[in-house]
Design a protein that fits this description.
Length: 285
């Protein structure tokens, strides 16, 4: 049996195109537009450019929750960004988000229009704009922001680390899977201990911190990303499962999860959303 020589990093790293497995055509070590392509603009002031990944779902859940509260000015157009086809590298998208990641939002109710990129920033922007799902009292607001940014800081370990090496990497590497599994289980334990004494992350009130964390950890424990429930022993995190199940049962959350979704059962898909009536027509867009 021939042993593989240990990897020795070169003095200067050079990109080997095609080395990222299924994501080889969208990952690159440079930024900026790769082609000219204008973004579509719908009829509502809020224009969302996204895909129903966890980061995209955070925003559509909030928008649907705002509409459920009667915030009519939160009506929005959600345009599908096909990341596997490189839509995020079009000139129009890069002008909204120079980081070429979904989601990206343009608020055309302001003059000039306001661009907002990064999912956490969009959540805070919308919550402040519509005065909802973000506490006003300083201590409560700080708690909300702490859990929101806790999620943003944990996402690279969960998605880019565990998710990549467990579900997507071209080969299974024990060290990498073990390293990121340990961290994901630690994060789940942090959530579980907190939710053992609280209904929601910050107490009795549901807010943007719950939406952000549900989009990643809620879908992880309920089995819709990475298919790792058994591997991670998620039933042992009973408080996380209870919290995630309660949030997922909310009608606005169920609608938000469908927006910009192009996979799974057809009734759960809504490639684009331009009006509340679109939910009655799964193939809309």
């Amino acid at each position: 049996m021939t042993e593989t020589a240990p990897y020795v990093p070169p003095k200067v790293w050079k990109w080997k195109a095609g080395g990222e497995g299924r994501f080889a055509n969208i990952n690159r070590p440079i930024s900026g537009a790769a082609h000219e392509k204008e973004l579509p603009v719908g009829r509502h002031p809020l224009q969302l450019y996204s895909l129903a990944t966890p980061n995209g779902v955070k925003v559509t859940i909030l928008l649907e929750e705002l509409l459920a509260l009667g915030k009519r000015e939160a009506e929005y157009d959600a345009h599908l960004i096909k990341i596997m086809e490189g839509d995020q590298f079009g000139s129009g998208f890069v002008a909204v988000n120079p980081n070429s990641k979904i989601p990206a939002l343009v608020d055309r109710s302001t003059s000039p229009p306001t661009r907002v990129f990064e999912s956490g920033a969009i959540l805070v922007y919308l919550a402040e704009k519509f005065d909802a799902f973000l506490p006003k009292e300083p201590s409560a607001r700080a708690e909300c922001m702490s859990w929101l940014f806790w999620q943003i800081g944990s996402a690279p370990y969960l998605g880019g680390g565990f998710g990549h090496f467990y579900a997507y990497a071209p080969e299974k590497i024990e060290y990498c899977i073990d390293r990121f599994t340990m961290e994901v289980k630690r994060l789940l334990d942090v959530l579980d201990r907190n939710l053992a004494v609280r209904r929601y992350l910050c107490g009795d009130e549901y807010n943007i911190a719950d939406m952000a964390n549900y989009a990643w950890f809620g879908t992880l424990v309920l089995g819709t990303i990475y298919e790792a429930q058994e591997f991670l022993d998620v039933p042992s995190y009973t408080h996380v499962v209870r919290w995630a199940s309660e949030i997922q049962a909310r009608p606005a959350v169920q609608r938000g999860r469908r927006v910009n979704r192009t996979w799974g059962p057809e009734p759960e898909q809504l490639p684009e959303r331009h009006d509340a009536g679109d939910f009655d027509h799964p193939a809309a867009g």
